[in-house]
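Discussion board: Methods & Data

I've been asked by a reviewer to show the raw model output for two of the constructs in my manuscript, not just the figures. I'm not sure how much to include, so I'm pasting the format here to get opinions. Each protein appears as its amino acid sequence followed by a line of discrete structure tokens. Is this the kind of thing reviewers expect to see in a supplement, or should I convert it first? Here is construct A:
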Amino acid sequence: MKPILIYVASEDWAFVSHRLPMARAARDAGFDVHVATSVGSSADAIRAEGFTIHPIPFRRGGLSPLSAISTILALRKIKRTLSPSIVHHVGMQICVLGGISSLGMTTPQVNAMTGLGYAFTSTTARALLLRIVIAVALRFLLNRDHAIFLVQNPDDRAALETIGIDPNRLVRIPGSGVDTDKLLPMPEPAGPITVGFAGRLLTSKGIRALVGAHRILRALGVDVRLRIAGDPDLANPDSVSFEDAKQWNNEPGITWLGHVYDITSLWRDSHIAALPSHREGLPKSLLEAAACARPLIATDAPGCREIAIHDQTGLLVPIENPQALADAIGKLATSPELRMRYGAAARRLVVEKMSAQAIGAAIVDLYNEQIQRTS
């Protein structure tokens, strides 16, 4: 019989967007892949891959104990019914709830920290309290013999060690994999220099700083365009409102596109990719832009600097510094040579270290290693 692998993800669209390369590699390596998630519009896409989907009640960002209990009970039932060979929890909230649902079980767990999120980027009282609660929960729920933590960058590894996670349980794999056969280098578009942004519209993703940088450049008479792909995330306290996002369309040179299904269209129409985020795991938007040979602008922050390497694949700027961001955009806007050099280097980095093939092979090796270690 095929070994059963269960992915537990917050929402079906998030699994499709961020976990397909890993899941496909596991399927191709002989695993029977199951996905436990909150079901929405992407369920058919999951089934089309040959994966079995299991609906669970889940509300991302929710703090209701009753809601958490229903999620825990649903996951526990699925795990007891399937008796999986390994379980892959995705995201901080899922890792905590999944850890509770696995109490008393010895099934190997991969707990993927895809970026430490709002609790670790915000300085509000609520975030600080959440950070304490999360630290305690992770130490006592997941610091167990059959569990490991999967991180995407060295900074997140160090942060988890700081809150008491056993270093021997920490494994780093850089990202979730990018299809470099589908995302290919593109020629620059004609027309004014255009900066592309792809991501949730959160202050912590740097979207307000990026809009501020664009305003600085326009005030100086620089004809730079900004195309914003993504929606507000009202489950996150850091989110921009829909009203603010709509207002950007009224500013000269800014286009808010909303959710973009074909991300290649954004990079085809952009000269530069920007993500001035406060903290990332390893940002998918920059990985995809790099695969398309676009130069990168990002903040010198965890996760971002793993792909946006200063003066190699792009430029790094301080967090929440619109002036420095405007200066970086202006520098690339006036230098076709820099854009071409950085874009080519970004493409090479993704192909060599962060492709779907490389990440898929690494995750399958990790699954097999954990199954053998705990058998």
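Construct B, same format:
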Amino acid sequence: MSLVVEIAVEEPKWQELGDLEGFATQSMEAALRESEENPAQSAEVSLLFCDDARMRVLNRDFRGKDKPTNVLSFPGPDLPEPAPVLGDIALGYETVAREAQQQGKSFADHARHMIVHGFLHLLGYDHETEAEAAEMEAMEIRILQSFGIANPYGDPLQ
């Protein structure tokens, strides 16, 4: 499967990650390999790299929560092949940077985790129940380990 990745950068500070399209594509392709989902021969994902002000508006308008957040995923409609739109992911710079600092992680590692997390939501994974959360977290841990990133949850992989 090939991924078509569309990138929009509203917050220039995200550029410190370098090649955002490559960074995001590598992250999502690793998640796709780990996932049992295989949406089609090709799929499209859009990423918005924005600031917390924009994330607050998106979170308020789409989730009814009037506060910024680290990552939001918006699954796309089910379209016929060959290029289904998996959906959109938005990431808020200040929240991701603050969380990385608070958790003693590099900004790049935490940003990669947020992209993986958001992408898994587009593939249909969730964390509403304990069982769903355990499955999704275990996948995230394995995906991030493939990049040499330590378990973001701090607990041993079970």
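Answer (T.O., handling editor elsewhere):
This is acceptable in a supplement if you add a one-line summary per construct. For B, something like: The chain has one domain: 2-145.
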